Amino acid sequence: xxxxxxxxxxxxxxxxxxxxxxxxxxxxxxxxxxxxxxxxxxxxxxxxxxxxxxxxxxxxxxxxxxxxxxxxxxxxxxxxxxxxxxxxxxxxxxxxxxxxxxxxxxxxxxxxxxxxxxxxxxxxxxxxxxxxxxxxxxxxxxxxxxxxxxxxxxxxxxxxxxxxxxxxxxxxxxxxxxxxxxxxxxxxxxxxxxxxxxxxxxxxxxxxxxxxxxxxxxxxxxxxxxxxxxxxxxxxxxxxxxxxxxxxxxxxxxxxxxxxxxxxxxxxxxxxxxxxxxxxxxxxxxxxxxxxxxxxxxxxxxxxxxxxxxxxxxxxxxxxxxxxxxxxxxxxxxxxxxxxxxxxxxxxxxxxxxxxxxxxxxxxxxxxxxxxxxxxxxxxxxxxxxxxxxxxxxxxxxxxxxxxxxxxxxxxxxxxxxxxxxxxxx
Length: 426
What we know:
Layout: E1 13-14, E2 25-26, E3 65-70, E4 78-85, E5 92-101, E6 105-110, E7 130-135, E8 141-153, E9 156-166, H1 184-187, E10 191-195, H2 204-208, E11 215-217, E12 251-255, E13 267-273, E14 289-291, E15 299-303, E16 306-312, E17 319-321, E18 343-350, E19 357-364, H3 367-373, E20 384-386, E21 391-393, H4 395-398, E22 402-406, E23 423-425
Parallel strand pairs: 5-10, 6-9, 16-21, 17-20
Antiparallel strand pairs: 1-2, 3-4, 3-13, 4-5, 4-8, 6-10, 7-8, 7-11, 8-9, 12-13, 12-22, 14-23, 15-16, 15-18, 18-19, 22-23
């Protein structure tokens, strides 16, 4: 950007975990000033969105539906509101601006929003007071105790589940839990609702290995709580709240509207709990299922004759992939592409075993010009940037589509109308 009146924070967060590893990329555009000059609107092609089936009809009053607001803070940020209660009580707080993330698992809320509840820290069968370090590949982390809470999402309730209360000042964070998120203003949200493929955030690897560097025995009164991590049974780990719902617990559906390629000031859609468990979440004919790998939740994407491991992540605010030949990276925002003119690309998505396949056409526009056009615009379906060796179908991919996220089966016999999870479908 050329204007000195604009301050922009960009941060690339890639979650690294043992076992059921997930990857979530979150990049922020926080415009905290006014543009000194406004660029004219670009001439942009209209890229047709592949939609294999019509959207679900949602009135918004269904108990298994939660409203999603896109552009609620930084650019392409999808937010929901959840209610968190002390287990079995009417003592509750409503927390808004919670990032909706299909690339992670579990609820993480900053402790400042939970202070009135006095939630009880989780203690496992060995008497460990559990705390967690959620680390990211850019060196940043979220630290805090694991606590028990009832989580209300729309009309659905996940009862007495482990969540993380994020607090950089809790106890003493491990030395390798670095660059801690201090609070909502630092992170850009009040918490993260992870509704991805898996039930637990670390799974079998944190059960088997004590040196996982994810879970720790640490209470406020502990003196040596940071010396070593501990193994933790899955049932004590931070868990995906969707998996704890009574019936709508086999996956979620995220349905967002289409927008103009020029951008929009905001967008409103729906997070729908369950797949084929009731009329409001029963997929119409034509939905195509892309099976995901059971160890990491990824499928495949081919771009320019190279096939990458890929994932579909609402917590990423752009489309991120290895820089193709001829694509220009922004000089002032190296996390984003700035091609001129805009580029239309075609990639092929595949299930993790190679089938089914489907071609996807998408556009990448100049991120500088997009943000300098109208600073009221907070939603774009055509911004992206470079990302190592994987393909991240971020929030722009959701716009104009109904995306089904199938959870891993809770038992060997459980399945959905679209097949057995984990899978992506649309």
